[in-house]
Specification:
The complex is a heterodimer of chains A (about 450) and B (about 180). Chain A has about 450 residues and is an alpha+beta fold. Chain A folds into two domains: about 10-145, 2-Layer Sandwich (Alpha-Beta Plaits); about 210-440, 3-Layer(aba) Sandwich (Rossmann fold), CATH 3.40.50. Chain A is about 30% helix and about 15% strand. Chain A has helices spanning about 10-25, 40-45, 85-90, 120-125, 190-195, 215-230, 245-260, 285-290, 300-310, 330-335, 350-355, 395-405, 415-425, 430-435, and strands spanning about 65, 70-75, 95-100, 105-110, 135, 150-155, 160-170, 170-175, 210, 215, 235-240, 260-265, 315-320, 340-345, 355-360, 370, 375-380, 440. Chain A is elongated, with a radius of gyration of 26 Å. The model of chain A has no long low-confidence stretch (mean pLDDT about 95). Chain B has a domain at about 60-165: Alpha-Beta Plaits (2-Layer Sandwich), CATH 3.30.70. Chain B contains six helices and five strands, in the order H-H-E-H-E-E-H-E-E-H-H. Chain B has helices spanning about 10-15, 15-35, 75-80, 120-125, 150-160, 165-175; strands spanning about 60, 85-90, 110-115, 130-135, 150. In chain B, the strands form two sheets. Chain B has a three-stranded antiparallel β-sheet. Classes of the chains: A alpha+beta (about 450), B alpha+beta (about 180). Chains A and B meet through loops of A and helix 3 and helix 6 of B.
């Protein structure tokens, strides 16, 4: 059998189909959020006519219908393709949508009395070929052609869905899933998708603080390195975060072994589901395990660190990205420390007590890799600039490791990753380049 | 290229004929200005040129015949603007709705940096709502850079009213007519 797809007859048929689709489709493009990534708009350019032949009045349907907490429906724009119905029934497993009425009056609606509110509703906005289903979060915020799309990874749970970060002028507007059949397919959950607003938060840590006073990176890092070099073995503890990248955890591991420190991270568990959401809410738990920051059971060393501080054995604590006052090392214990070095993104009880505050970067502001719950190592790229003096953790950790241990590593993330891959047995054979856009699975 | 310089003749060497010739022109114009009122200069800025009908001056936003903002914040002008003089803040989900019914969007803020604007007219050409027009102002002044960034309010007050087809109003009327069944067309 031979199939011809480009003959004049086929083209004419497509033009016919498109003309029927456009009969009742409103000319909403100037106010439609889908404009710029609309399939109907693209087909209209390919097969449409400059003026419609339809002289009758178009059928009008309700605009701005509230389908659920995150979805707004513009019934007029719907071309009744039923993709959203099939997605939510067959993939999300929540048979919430359907068509009512007949002929030209057919309308998409949700089941009466039950809002369309499962955790995967925003995927219907992605698969809607027109602007009928719109995200309430992104609605009327920015035109899509202005958004710079950066390949990144979602950090809301250990699944690590591949995403695209849509940003313009250092402001993040949305996350959209990026197809990666090794991790998330083409989908992502609503919770992860909307978890980006903290990145541009007004009270981000922006200054390097030395005992509450504003300082510079050079001065603070030199002071910290001098102090760390003088500490006796066994008097230092490191609380890293499983929200940090593999490279950062590896650099912290180097610091830890030089100082003979005890280290751990903080476990973070929530509810998972059968589709994408993992019960482990840390994006890089496996990275923390593989780089030797913590053991299979996360958080077992935390009581030991707390005891060490209260007995006076541990005098220096290095905390990265965690509020330890919520995890068994209270403010009274932190007060006993001689040196408390804290790096974080947003202020919390621990940063308030810190002698040294080193402002860090969100994943959207730096490059790095995460190891997900199945051992998939994925890299992510930088979308926006960090605010104020904030610097990527791997950059200043590299300086710190160099000052304290004397080992000079790579000053680029590519070199650093390759060096880590040689050093950490689980990552052996990997290179930054070989990770590609979709990552590589390693044995965990 | 070498140009041959002709040596001056006797009369030219005297210079006086040329000076007298020049003075004649000056005196003629002085006489026409002072006694005949035929000035060739203009007292700018009190007096200004009237520009031609299709002149491209500063772009301003216009309102429709009902006094509503026409702009729907589609941001095509911002996209097409070569010197990036236009900056639009979209309304957002919780933003103020448009002041004319049925078009759901209206810019929360619309700024044109008149120091950057090159009066090219791309914004007028691209506008799907006929909401921005290059008008006849060509000499804009201000005492600071901030003052030269015109906001929505200023642009709308300078732009005036430009009647045209009211697409959204027409659409609303059509939709209201359909509410009674059977549909009357």
């Amino acid at each position: 059998m031979e199939i011809y797809t480009t003959t004049p007859g086929v083209k004419q048929m497509r033009e016919g189909v498109l003309e029927f689709l456009l009969i009742n489709h409103p000319l909403d493009c100037p106010i439609c959020d889908e404009a710029g990534e609309c399939k109907l708009q693209e087909y209209s350019v390919d097969y449409g006519q400059s003026a419609g032949r339809f002289v009758e009045a178009k059928v009008h349907k309700p605009k701005a219908v509230d389908l659920g907490p995150r979805i707004m429906l513009d019934a007029e724009r719907c071309i009744l393709c039923s993709r959203c119905i099939r997605f939510t029934r067959d993939i999300a497993g929540d048979d919430a949508l359907g068509f009512i009425n007949r002929g030209s009056y057919s309308t998409l609606t949700h089941y009466p009395g039950k809002p369309f509110d499962n955790n995967y509703t925003l995927n219907t906005v992605d698969i809607c070929p027109v602007g009928a289903l719109t995200s309430k979060d992104f609605r009327f915020k920015m035109r899509v052609w202005f958004l710079k799309e950066t390949k990144s990874v979602c950090t809301s749970c250990a699944t690590g869905c591949s995403i695209l970060i849509g940003s313009r002028e250092e402001k993040i507007y949305r996350y959209t899933p990026r197809e990666n059949n090794g991790v998330n397919g083409p989908w992502m959950c609503d919770a992860g998708r909307l978890n980006y607003k903290w990145i541009g938060h007004a009270d981000r840590l922006k200054d390097v603080l030395v005992r509450g006073q504003k300082s510079t990176w050079t001065a603070a890092l030199n002071e910290i390195s001098d102090k760390l070099k003088k500490t006796p073995a066994g008097s230092v503890a490191v609380v890293a975060s499983a929200r940090q990248t593999n490279e950062e955890l590896w650099l912290l591991g180097k610091l830890k072994s030089k100082l003979g420190a005890v280290s751990d991270s903080v476990a973070r568990f929530g509810e998972g589901d059968k589709l994408l959401v993992s019960a482990d809410k840390n994006p890089n738990t496996n990275g923390a395990r593989l780089t030797g920051i913590c053991f299979t059971e996360i958080g077992t060393n935390l009581p030991q660190i707390a005891n060490g501080i209260s007995s006076g054995k541990i005098k220096t604590l290095i905390v990265f990205g965690e509020d330890v006052t919520k995890h068994g090392i209270g403010a009274d214990l932190l007060g006993k420390l001689e040196t408390l070095i804290v790096s974080d993104i947003l202020p919390n009880a621990t940063t308030k007590l810190a002698h040294y505050v080193l402002p860090g970067c969100a994943h959207a502001e730096k490059r790095g890799t995460f190891t997900n719950t199945k051992g998939r190592v994925q890299k992510f790229m930088k979308a926006v600039e960090a605010p104020g003096d904030a610097r990527a953790e791997w950059e200043f950790l590299h300086d710190l490791v160099h000052n304290v241990t004397g080992q000079n590593g790579f000053v680029t993330i590519e070199g650093l990753f390759n060096q880590m891959a040689e050093d950490v047995s689980a990552f052996n054979g990997l290179t930054w380049q070989a990770l590609g856009d979709t990552g590589v699975t390693v044995q965990i | 290229m070498i140009v041959d310089r002709r040596p001056l003749t006797f009369w030219e060497k005297l210079y006086l004929p040329a000076i007298i010739g020049g003075l004649k022109v000056t005196v003629r114009h002085a006489f026409r200005t002072l006694f005949q009122g035929k000035a060739v200069t203009m007292e700018y800025p009190e007096q200004k040129w009237t520009v031609p009908e299709n002149y491209r001056g500063a772009p301003y936003l216009v309102k429709d015949q009902d006094g509503n903002t026409k702009c729907v914040s589609c941001q095509l002008c911002e996209f097409v603007c070569p010197p990036k003089a236009i900056r639009i803040t979209p309304p957002g989900e919780s933003g103020k709705l448009a002041d004319r019914t049925n078009a759901e969007k209206m810019p929360a803020e619309f700024e044109i940096n008149m120091l950057r604007c090159i009066f090219c007219g791309f914004c007028q050409e691209v506008c799907p709502e006929e909401a921005i027009f290059l008008q006849k102002d060509y000499s804009l002044t201000g005492t600071s850079r901030e003052e030269m960034i015109y906001n929505k309010e200023k642009l709308l007050s300078l732009g005036g009213i430009s009647p045209g087809i009211q697409k959204w109003k027409h659409k609303l009327e059509e939709a209201q007519a359909q509410e009674s069944f059977p549909v009357k067309v």
